[in-house]
Amino acid sequence: MTTMAQEHETPTAEVGPGSLPIDVECIRDGLIDALTLPLATTTREDINASIRQVRGHLNLLMGEELGYDSDPTVRDLFRQAYTLLDLGRRPNEDTPAFEAFAHLRDTAGVAQRLLDFFEEFRSSPVHRPGMQAHPGNA
């Protein structure tokens, strides 16, 4: 039996995209917060902080197996995500607050849809650890 101390001392060779658990509730809460920010009373600093947080969520989700190879909707969401993450298209300090706010909402919307796919993909019996595909579904 392995103790916690032994686990922390042993390096993990399999750390990378898809190998760490995703806190779905935390991501969903962050996306809801971003999507419900009121433009009229939100400062540019708050918008920028929300953009950074949502961008992190989006990057994390894009590192997961979401059925990209088999689902054209997921591929389309990835294309949208790459466009939103493109350095040349991101808001900068010269971008008007309204445009930065619109970028935040667009990015959060794509992340929300990818999170929905993540939950759906992970809840499928074929993708649960230890579960086998039914012979007719393989």
- Report low-confidence residues grouped into runs of 5 or more: 1-18, 128-138
Mean pLDDT equals 80
**Binned strand content:** under 5%
Distance between the termini: 35 Å
Number of strands: 0
Secondary-structure class: mainly alpha
Major sheet summary line: none
Notes on the protein architecture:
- The structure is a single chain.
- This protein has helices spanning 4-9, 24-35, 44-62, 72-85, 97-123.
- The two termini are 35 Å apart.
- The chain is mainly α.
What is the element layout, followed by pairings?
Blueprint (H helix, E strand, L loop, with lengths): L3 H6 L14 H12 L8 H19 L9 H14 L11 H27 L15
In short:
The protein is mostly helical and 138 residues long. Helix content is 57%, strand content 0%. It has helices at 4-9, 24-35, 44-62, 72-85, 97-123.
Keywords:
138 residues; mainly alpha
